[in-house]
Structure formats: structure tokens, C-alpha cells
Amino acid sequence: MRPIEKCDVVIIGAGPAGLAAALYTGRARLKTIVLEKGLPGGQILMTDWLENYPGFPEGIRPFDLAENFRRQAEKFGAIIETDEARGVRKEDDLWGVEGQNREYAARAVIIATGAAYRKLGIPNEERFTGKGVSYCATCDAAFFKDKIVAVVGGGDNALTEAIFLTRFCRKLFLIHRRDRFRAVKILQERVLANPKMEVLWNSVVESAEGESCLERILVKNVREDRTFPLQLDGLFVSIGMDPHTEFVKGLMELNEWREIKVKPNMATSQAGIFAAGDVAEACPKQVITAAGSGVAAALAVIDYLESLGG
Prior knowledge:
Mean pLDDT: 94
Helix content: 10-25%
Number of helices: 6
Largest sheet: 7 strands, mixed
Strand content: 25-35%
Order of helices and strands: EHEHEEEEEEHEHEHEEEEEEEH
Structural class: alpha/beta
């Protein structure tokens, strides 16, 4: 038998949502265990600098912000375990969370496992992430003022990010593998009417190149079977996100993008389980909204446990 750790709340994921939730459940004197398979911080650790989090007018290193989140949660009693949740199941009046090395039994669970940006899978993509390659225009657009950038994608989010980027950059290439967009018509009209934009149809990115940072990409026109270099300062990849919900598939309701469906208080279709951050539907992919949804989930957990008594 593997050891069983009992607590009031298990929070799965130690990104901004999970750590903000842990701060509030800890302050409520609930025994809180946070499971995180990697470093606390989540997706924000993929960038070098964060300048749109309130309270830091000069910006802050994402690692430092994550460390502050962690320290504050632990100050109020949250226990952060290096472990990966592999499944969640109902056991009598408790929820059992299966970790790699032990089992956790809790009266409530908050799922804050986040989502992963889909990658292009091209050479040097990982190497230049945070050094010219980005997955969030809202986060990084200001770093490319008067620069030349490219956006890869053809859906609503890609076109929305491209339009937003033109507020900062001087030239933008929109690279799409097909000969038409999938985005809604009004976004297409705005893109095609924007003088800063040039659309590269039927094209894919084959590699990212440069010395210490991104300097150019290789683009292939799949219809003409022609490859050419494109000099630029930034490459924004906007081809979707994959929420980390594999371990709860079949347990609760998911939407068409495999995000967890939640009520306004972040409750899921299973009583006693809540979701927050990028893994939950209708949560903008920003640090501040992830933290806010984590707080909302924690407050809902407190109310839920009070309603159970004991």
C-alpha cells in the first residue's frame, strides 16, 4: 500500500492560479497540499520579463514573481509537493488524487494544471523562446516596438494578436499554411485592410535562425515548393493551446477544446472539484486573470467545505 496523505484541499498545479488559491485556502486554516511536477510558476517561466502584472511598474522577472507567490502561500501553511497527479477518483466522502509516489485524500480539489502552447516543432524554436520567439502578443508586444515581426496562424486568436501587434511593430508578416483564414469575417477584413500587414499564404515556417537571438526564419511556400529567408526580430506562434486535462478525462465535463467547464464560482460538474487558470474555460490567458480565478476557486472551496460542516 502506498502512503496516503490526508488534507482539506489538494491543489493540482503551482502556477499563478494554483499558488493564489493556496494562499487563500491556507489563510482560511485549511490544510492545503499543492502538487507540482516541475518548478512553481507555470507558463510564466517561459519568458524573461513580465511588465503587465499590476504593482510592478518597472516590470519583474517571472521567476521572482513565482517565487514570491510560493513564499507567500507557504507562509500561510500551504505544503508544496514535487509530484504529478495521474488521476482523481471519488472515495467515500473524499476525493482521492493519485500521485507518482503516494495518494492524497482531500475534501475538495482545485485543478490548476494550466495549458501548453502548441509549438511549431521547428529547429531552434526552444532555443529562441524568450529571445525572439513568443506565444503571447499581449505579454510581449511592447518589446517589439518599431520592429519587424511575424505571426503564425489563421484562426481568431492569431488574427487578433496580429492586429494588436501592429500597435507596436512597424511591419508584420502573417504566415498561414492555407489559402484562406479560419477566423471570423470581421477579423479577416481588418487584417487585409491593415497597411502594416503582409499575408504569406500557403506558407509554413521551417526553421528559426540567429546567433544569440532570433534574426530570421526560413519560410516555405508549400504550393510553389519554394523556400526563402525572412529577416525579422520576433516570431509569434498562435496555433492554439492544449490544456492539461488528460488525467481527468471522463471524470468531468470538458468543452470542445478540452478545457474544464466551470460555473461562475469555478465549480466543475463534480461537486467538490473546482478549476482555475488556463485549464478552465473562458479564462483569458494572462497571469493576473489566472491568479484571480485561483482566488475565486479558493473562496468557493471555503464556502463549499463550510456547507459540509466538520
